[in-house]
């Protein structure tokens, strides 16, 4: 089975966001695998262990993204592809076009990704990629079962579960709860250094820069306003409820 995982390297979720000259500063920042993509890597490795095959992890990004791919290789993926051509960095439209080109070049039976990126909050990557490839996709998956080419998944639907049956080839996006990602072992880390990692450019993928050019543009970025301190109400419950209603009506003006 040819299993592809699309992953993104993101800011560590503990990092403080700093904006300088209208751009997010990366000075001294720690980067990690997008947490939802970690579930995708783990599920791909579990599928390989159960059904055989090969896991290829793919990312688009600068040189530093190799660290995220090496981590996935240390977890148990077999090989990696990094598209580090800056002309192919763009929005979700660009990303889907580029990942589709890589998927066609590498080949696949199933593609797994995270259900959203924690840095942008975007959940478009998986559905857009599936659309580019003309295959089915199922999002926010919390359980995945394969039987030959038959695929049965359970997906999170705002706290409830929906069962979907489909077939390979398919793209799924992982939701928290799908599995518990493993930590790379020391032997795994040592082996990861020698596993193949290909770097691809627009020419390698036969892509025209104009055809994959971003459809959106960031014109400004700003931090949200600081949270105001909360207020603790006092008195008995009836007095607190009365004061709360007054505050919601007169200060917050939400009722």
TrEMBL record:
Q: What top-level branch of life does the organism fall under?
A: Bacteria
- Ranges where the Electron transfer flavoprotein alpha/beta-subunit N-terminal domain occurs: 21-209
Which metal ions or organic cofactors does this protein require, according to UniProt?
AMP
Q: How does it assemble?
A: Heterodimer of an alpha and a beta subunit.
**Task of the protein:** The electron transfer flavoprotein serves as a specific electron acceptor for other dehydrogenases. It transfers the electrons to the main respiratory chain via ETF-ubiquinone oxidoreductase (ETF dehydrogenase).
- Which PROSITE patterns does its entry note? ETF_BETA
By what name is this protein known? Answer: Electron transfer flavoprotein subunit beta
The UniProt entry's sequence similarity note says: Belongs to the ETF beta-subunit/FixA family.
Q: Which UniProt keywords apply?
A: Electron transport, Transport
């Amino acid at each position: 089975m040819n299993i592809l995982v699309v992953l993104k390297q993101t800011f560590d979720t503990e990092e403080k966001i700093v904006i300088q000259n209208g751009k997010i500063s990366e000075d001294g920042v720690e980067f990690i695998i997008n947490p939802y993509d970690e579930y995708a890597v783990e599920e791909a490795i579990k599928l390989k262990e159960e059904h055989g095959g090969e896991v290829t992890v793919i990312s688009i990004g600068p040189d530093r993204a190799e660290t995220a791919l090496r981590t996935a290789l240390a977890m148990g993926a077999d090989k990696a592809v990094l598209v580090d051509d800056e002309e192919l960095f763009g929005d979700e439209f660009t990303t889907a076009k580029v990942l589709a080109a890589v998927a066609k070049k590498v080949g696949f039976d199933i593609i797994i990704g995270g259900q959203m990126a924690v840095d942008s909050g975007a959940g478009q990557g998986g559905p857009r990629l599936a659309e580019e490839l003309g295959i089915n996709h199922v999002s926010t998956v919390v359980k995945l079962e394969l039987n030959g080419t038959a695929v049965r998944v359970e997906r999170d639907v705002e706290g409830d579960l929906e069962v979907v049956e489909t077939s390979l080839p398919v793209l799924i996006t992982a939701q928290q709860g799908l599995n518990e990602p493993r930590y790379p072992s020391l032997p795994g880390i040592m082996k990861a250094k020698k596993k193949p990692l290909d770097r691809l450019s627009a020419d390698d993928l036969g892509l025209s820069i104009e055809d994959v050019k971003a459809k959106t543009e960031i014109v400004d970025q700003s931090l949200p306003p600081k949270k105001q301190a909360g207020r603790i109400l006092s008195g008995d419950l009836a007095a607190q409820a009365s004061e709360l209603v007054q505050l919601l009506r007169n200060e917050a003006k939400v009722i």
